[in-house]
Amino acid sequence: SRKFTVAAAQLGPIAKEEPRNSAVARLCAMMREAKARGAALVVFPELALTTFFPRWFIEAGPELDQWFETEMPNDATAPLFTLAKQLGIGFHLGYAELTPDGHHYNTAILVGPDGEIAGKYRKIHLPGHWENEEWRPFQHLEKRYFEKGDLGWPVFDMLGGKLGMCICNDRRWPETWRVLGLGGAELVCLGYNTPIHFAPAPEHDHLQYFHNELSVMAGCYQNGTWGVAVAKAGLEEGSVLIGGSVIVAPTGEIVAKASTSGDEVICAEVDLDRCAEIRANVFNFEEHREPQDYLPITAP
Ligand code: ING
Fold first, then answer.
1. Is 158 strand, coil or helix?
2. Which residue numbers delimit the CN hydrolase domain (predicted)?
3. What ipTM goes with this model?
């Protein structure tokens, strides 16, 4: 067996004016709690260093770039990397990345217990819209502020297994999970900032928690992988973000779920060998998958 304890460190709201060192202090407190509870890995949310700024229309330039990190680690996040090395715990962190050549990504990294970055992912499915849309109670301008990720969905050797990442809206797309599954992912880390109100279809607002669980449970089951999905939650600058962070088994079962909308650490023991229960049987890709038939047939 390849057992270890994983922690999902759900964040409550981060205020617009909250400085990064305040958010990092909250992350460090939860990293300590995760370690105290025996975790080898702690998963933090998407865009975990700042408020969810795509909810506002912001002109390109310094006012927008203030929300991005130009290097990682940096002065604000160094304490987190130092603590991880000191405690000997790995972590996943989502943040807004501004590259030296001026590219903007919604990014996540995996950092080993040695405090070194082991892997990076840049969000591919960017939801929302490009222009300020006055009819909306709040904006969702990820398509305006981020470029589509250019790294694919890589899988990294870590903690004795194969770990992958995706980010928020990615989890809704079966292709995300299948590409990770085909890459051999045994545990997928993802963060999310999901408003309870989806302006184009408000009749679905009451389904946001359900759709979160549905997406992660299906993705895990249909690819025989563990999943750790972690929210930035709560009433953040007037916008309610769902909580509902979950740890899901390769069977699709939820093995741990957050019960608040604030900073909350949930833990579960994962056994990466359990992926074989699914991958050697019902979803044995080599034996049962028929990719040559996966072509949309239009009616004659
Ligand atoms: N947030 C939301 C998400 O995909 C969204 C956007 C909400 C899309 C509800 C569709 C329905 O969870 C991010 N950051 O992707």
1. strand
2. 4-272
3. 0.95
Residue with CA at minimum distance from ligand 1 atom 1:
194
11 bridge partner residues: 232
Q: Is 168 a catalytic residue?
A: yes
How far apart are the C-alpha atoms of 48 and 11, rounded to whole Å? 8
Alpha helices in 207-265 (DSSP H): 208-223
The count of structural domains within the chain is 1
24: containing domain: 3-298
Answer whether 97's CB lies under 8 Å from 107's CB. Answer: yes
297 falls in which pLDDT band (50, 70, 90)?
Answer: confident
Ligand 1 center to residue 168 CA distance, Å?
A: 6
Q: Could you tell me if the CB of 192 is within 6 A of ligand 1?
A: yes
Q: What is the DSSP letter of 128?
A: S
CA 158 – ligand 1 centroid, Å: 28
Closest by Cα among 217, 289, 238 to 136: 238
116/110 Cα distance (integer angstroms): 9
63 contacts: CB under 8 Å, gap ≥ 6? none
Q: Is the CB of 173 under 6 A from ligand 1?
A: no
pLDDT of residue 299: 83
How does pLDDT run across 121-141, given as a tens digit for each residue?
999 999 999 999 999 999 999
Where does residue 259 rank: exposed (0-12), middle (13-18), buried (19+ CB within 10 A)?
exposed
Ligand 1 pocket, 193 CB below 6 A? yes
